[in-house]
Amino acid sequence: MAVYLVTGGCGSLGRAVVHFLASQGHQIGIIDMALAQKMPDAAVCICGIDVADKTSVSGAMADIVTTLGPVDGLVNISGGFLWETVEHGSPDQWDAMYRTNLRTAVVASREVLKHIGNGGAIVNVGAAAAANPAIGMAPYAASKAGVMALTKSLAEELRERSIRVNAILPTIIDTPANRRDMPDADPSGWVKPEAIAKVVAFLLSDDAAPITGAGIPLS
Fold first, then answer.
1. What's the CATH number where 123 sits?
2. pLDDT of 28-37, one tens digit each?
3. Which residue range is the domain that position 183 belongs to?
4. How many angstroms separate the CA atoms of 157 and 217, rounded?
5. How far apart are CA 105 and CA 204, in angstroms?
């Protein structure tokens, strides 16, 4: 049984990951800006906090470790999306996407290193769109490209501690929000949160020991 931390664990993807990891017998600490929801008994929720704020995340992790013990892995799911063209958009939205998608991963990854032992794992959620963004996706894609850069650099930084750092790069995830925002799209080809959860669990496990610094496409 392992102890895993999940940022953004109250969202659609986060809940799928939390429930799957809990079904495997692991204990989960959830850190999220959203309010706590119904979660497995194995989960400890510290919610309603700013996941991009170092002090808030540091305190949340310390509280979780006090309850659950040392951390074996971190999953950085906390994030968001907006559609906005460069011409008609605002630079402030670029800052917002950076803070939501990249800074949250940086803060959580930095703080978890106080609690994770050698041989642990970090899994970040990037995006396939970062490599080939469509119109209106520049702020989002740029922030997710930053997640991939963080993944590769941190993997090298932590190699001597045998802490693996990888990213998943999903296409459109089949969530209620995406179905609502794209009512005319066909969701049959979208990647399911439950399928993503299984990949995340693999990357956290010892079976993925040889893998670090990778971006795993999911579609």
1. 3.40.50.720
2. 999 999 876 6
3. 3-218
4. 23
5. 16
